[in-house]
Every structure is written in C-alpha cells, then in structure tokens.
Design goal:
single chain; 591 residues; alpha+beta; 3 domains; five-stranded mixed beta sheet; four-stranded antiparallel beta sheet; 16 strands; 52% helix
C-alpha cells in the first residue's frame, strides 16, 4: 500500500462540472488502499477467531498469486459494502449479537474466505477454501452464486483443481462453468452489461446476486429473468453512444470508474430512482427507465452521470474533508426534505454535472427545460454554500470552482416555452418546500388571523422568524417538473391526463389545477386552486400553485406574496374557523 498525494492537477480535474479519466484512476488507487485498510482493521478487530486467521493467510496467498486479480476483486462494490458494514458492527460492544435483519457474525467474517476464493478463481490458480453458507448459497464476488443448500451455520468447500472450480456442501457439488458468466446447474453467473462506441468501451456488472445492499432502503428484486437482463443490455447499448458523442471525456471517466449497476423495479412515471453509496465506489442503483423512444438514452445517461459524480465526490471526501460538522439544514431544489450541509455539497456537485450534460444538448425541448431547471438549482445552492463557515479550505475551493464555471450559464438562452416551464417548476418547488417545512409560531398565526378578520393592514416582514421544522408528509414536490417533462416528451399523454377526472390515479400527486397551470391556462388554474383551498381538505402545495397562477394572470403582487410566503397563508387559513377566500388573502398579504 502506498501514500496518495492529492496533486493540484487532480484536484482541479475533480473540482469541475466535467469528469476526468486520470482523476478517476487516482481515486480508484486511493479506494484500493482504503479497502486494504478496512481489511486490516477487520483482522485486528477479529484476530482471536481461528477462521479469520486462516482466511487471512489464504487471502495473502491469493494476492501473491495474482496481484491484478486481487485488486479487481478488492474493488468489487460488494466487497466495499461488506467491509464497511462489518467494521461498523465489530466496533459495537457486542458484535456477535445480531439484530433481526443481520446475518450471524461468523458468516460475515467468513466472507474473507469467499474473497480469497474469488481471487484464486480469477487468477486461474488452484486452491481450497472453507467458507460459510448464507441461506443455502455461496456468493463469490465478481463471479456468481452457487446454491448448495444448508442453513445459516453450515459451511461449504470451494476449490479449483485441474482447471475446474467446484463448490460443495452436504453431499451437493456445484461445478462452476469455465465462463463464469454463464448459468449452470446450481450456478448463477454474474452477468455483465457491455456497450461500445467510437473506441470507448463500457463493461460493468449487473448485480442482481450480491448479498450486500449499498442502500438498505433500496433492495434489488432478486435474480432477473433473461428477458429483463436483455432489456438492461439494450438500454445501455442505446444510452452509450449518446453519452460518448456528447461527453467523450466523461464517458471515458465513467468507463474507467463504474463497476456495477444494481437494478431496481420501475418507479412512478418520470420519477426514476437512482442512488449510490460511499461504501460502494463505482456502484449505481438504478430503476428501470421509462421507455420513451426519443428520450430514454439521454435520461438514462444523465442518471448514470449524476450518480457517478456522487461516487467521485465520495472518493474525494475519503481523502480530505470538505466541510466540518454542522447542524444546519438547508433548502435543496432537488429534494422534498431539508438537507444537511454535506447533502447540499453533494447535490451541488452532482447537479452541476447534470446541468452541464443538458447544456450541450440544445436549447429546445426536454434538454432546454432540464438545463434551465438545473442551472437555476445549482446557482441557488452555490449561493447558499459560497461563504458558509463550515467549509474547509478545500471545500471552499471546490464550491468556488463550481461557482466560477457555472456563473455564465443563467445568461444563456433556451426556448421561451422551456424557460417558462423551468421557472414554474423552480418556483413551485421552493414555495411548496416552504409551506411544508417553515413553521409559523401559533401566536403569530393567531395575530395574523385576528388582523385579517379586522381588515387591518400588517407588515408581515416585521413578524417573528419562521422555524424550520421538517414535515415528514412532504412528498412529490417535483410535480410541476414532472408535468413539464410529460408535456414536452409525450404531449398526447399530457392531454389525456388533463382530460381525466382524477389524474392522480395515473400519476400520483397530480391535480387538475397543476395540469392547467403547466398548460398555460392560468385562469382555470386559479379557479381550481381556489376551489381546493376553500374545500375541507386542501394540500399545502395548492398555495404555491395559486401564487404562480395569479402571477400569470397579471396579479403579480398577490402571486408573489403566496410564492414567497406561502407558509403565512397556510397558517392564517388554519387559524380561522372557515377557509378564507385565498385570492383575497393573497392580496391582503401583499399590501
């Protein structure tokens, strides 16, 4: 293991809205060393276990047999998640005490033997190892999974002799095929996604076998059927040329750094899910994309790029802190909930790359909308971060560099329709976030309600500050952005949704007023939002929608009052025995 020096050229390459292959190589080298440190820490914490010492000796022999194979297996994302989670467990007062969802400790420690076995198999060297059985299976990272039966306390042997690899337990022997990617009786091979274009090749595992979930809240559905795997292969083959042609340097960096994709089931329409983990460098969790013929390649490409940038920043943060501990919570234009400082830094980094991606794809249509939307989001957040005292010197350097690179973007033109839709989505998200998470003190709300009933003018700016209190019920704050996308890529589907009596049955969270607003029918939107707000059950988001609709109808002062202070309108309304006329309340707040 060697020391890693974060040079200025590497730092400059990472402090960018683009991606760089050499910087990715540096981070991979550093991650390899970090994994070695994790392994050593596991050995030190469990040195009294005979199985661990035997597995360690086998692992040392495997590294000597083929250092390149050892590095390949070591950098498998499953190894990273296993090592980090096991070390956290070993730091507990009683690591052997397993929770209901945890595997027995001896099984987790025994993964060292599976790691060594995978290295020997990859190297093509003979060996013999004893490994634990997990729910009747033996997983070999980067290779596949053998089913041998048995229970959580069982063991299996893995060996290679005369060029043949076998896994055996309890009278069951599984022969691993020479091409480990292929399935065989008792064997499920690790399948790989492959794409090539213009001399840039992408190869990464489709991980539907690994026992370790990088993001516990997002679990894979299990082994994909051949037809499902073929769909993923087809999607990546369609995505890759678009990424290579528009972002050649970024594509080369992706090809160097990506290791695996964990497939997730398709989510809601135009609400694809994607995630990554600091424990799993090079691993992306992606839901099945919407199969809109014209936009799938671009949408999948930006999802891959987005999560990869989180991976890059995680790699940098492991080497040097970018921010100190901080209890502050912030508005993030891409989230429903208030975010900590680290989340804001991560978002600024990831979405600056997203905005740059769309920036190169033209000013019209979906690309123009997405660019206008995300450049605004990034500039907003960089403004919040720019002078934050919790940033370290390198953190300030990162934010300053992103700020400098993105500063010219707001002046660049996009289509008028695309800019309007991006403005609606941007303002609606922020106003809806405010109405959910900014809490008006009860006494202040009662005073305002009394003033309203007495028809007294008030200076709302002189009232007490609103307290930030996270509302767990806040969800789908991106509704207007979703509808904007739908109107751009599937206008027939948008029209059908607008004609529907209950559009939420098709797209959760959507109401007719939102559809009217996006469609440019502001008068109908005002009417529909007003009816909702004067009804028995009104969504907080309706105040934000009404503000935008009023502004588009020319009532800018009233609209601005609801856009900038929707939490006051909500507080007054809830303090009155019957709902007020929301437009009159908006005008009163604007006085």
């Amino acid at each position: 293991m060697r020391l890693h020096h974060l040079s200025n050229p590497v730092l400059d390459a990472l402090n960018s809205v683009t991606e760089n292959e050499e910087a990715v190589g540096f981070l991979l080298d550093a991650e390899s060393s970090r994994r070695l440190l994790l392994l050593r820490a596991i050995l030190d914490a469990a040195a009294d276990a005979d199985d661990v010492r035997r597995a360690w000796k086998l692992l040392e022999a495997a590294e000597r047999a083929d250092p390149a194979a050892f590095r390949t297996v070591l950098l498998d994302p499953q190894v990273g998640v296993w090592a980090a989670s096991l070390l956290r467990r070993l730091s507990r007062p009683d690591p052997a005490a397993a929770t209901e969802i945890e595997t027995p400790l001896h099984v987790e420690l025994g993964f060292l033997g599976q790691l060594a076995a995978a290295v020997f198999i990859t190297a093509g060297a003979d060996f013999r190892a004893c490994v634990p059985v997990r729910e009747g299976r033996v997983f070999l990272p980067g290779l596949g999974r053998a089913t041998v039966g048995g229970d959580l306390r069982g063991t299996a042997e893995v060996w290679r002799q005369d060029g043949v690899v076998r896994v055996g337990a309890g009278g069951v022997t599984v022969t691993v095929p020479d091409e480990t990617e292929n399935d065989a009786p008792g064997w499920e091979g690790q399948r790989w996604l492959r794409a090539q274009h213009a001399g840039v090749d992408l190869t990464l595992a489709l991980d539907d076998l690994g026992p370790y979930a990088p993001v516990p809240q997002l679990t894979a559905p299990g082994r994909l059927a051949p037809a499902q795997f073929a769909s993923w292969q087809r999607w990546f083959e369609r995505m890759w040329p678009v990424l290579v042609e528009g972002h050649t340097d970024g594509a080369r960096a992706l090809a160097a750094g990506l290791r695996s994709v964990i497939p997730l089931p398709r989510g809601e329409r135009l609400r694809a899910r994607a995630a990554s983990s600091s424990d799993a460098f090079g691993c992306l969790l992606l839901s099945e994309p919407d199969e809109d013929e014209d936009v799938l390649p671009a949408q999948l490409g930006v999802a891959v790029l987005h999560e990869f940038r989180h991976t890059l920043l995680n790699g940098l943060i492991f080497l040097t802190p970018l921010f100190d501990e901080c209890d502050d919570l912030f508005y993030a234009p891409w989230r429903d909930d208030p975010r900590p400082l680290g989340g804001l830094v991560h978002g600024a980094y990831a979405f600056s790359g997203v905005a740059h991606y769309w920036r190169t794809r033209g000013p019209e249509g979906l690309a123009g909308f997405e660019y206008a939307l995300w450049r605004s989001a990034v500039r907003t957040v960089l403004g919040t971060l720019r002078d934050h005292p919790a940033l370290t010197p390198l953190g300030r350097s990162l934010i300053g560099s992103l700020d400098e690179q993105t500063a010219p973007w707001p002046a660049e033109s996009v289509g008028a329709r695309e800019q309007r839709l991006a403005h609606l989505a941007t303002v609606h998200h922020r106003a809806t976030w405010r109405v959910h998470h900014l809490h008006v003190p009860p006494a202040h709300a009662r005073e305002l309600a009394d003033d309203w009933r007495a028809e007294r003018r008030v200076d709302v700016g002189m009232r007490p500050e609103r307290a930030l209190r996270a509302d767990s019920g806040a969800c789908r704050l991106d509704t207007l952005a979703l509808l904007a996308r739908l109107s751009l890529i599937a206008p027939g589907e948008f029209d059908a949704l607008r004609a529907a009596e209950n559009p939420a049955r098709t797209v959760p969270g959507v109401v007719p007023a939102d559809l009217a607003l996006v469609d440019g029918d502001a008068a109908s939107a005002v009417k529909l939002y007003t009816e909702e707000l004067m009804g028995p059950v009104a969504r907080p988001a309706a105040w934000a929608g009404l503000g935008l609709a009023l502004a588009e109808c020319g009532e800018r002062a009233a609209g601005t009052a609801l856009i900038e202070r929707p939490e006051l309108a909500l507080a007054v309304s809830r303090s009155l025995p019957t709902p007020p006329d929301p437009a009159l309340l908006a005008h009163w707040l604007a006085e």
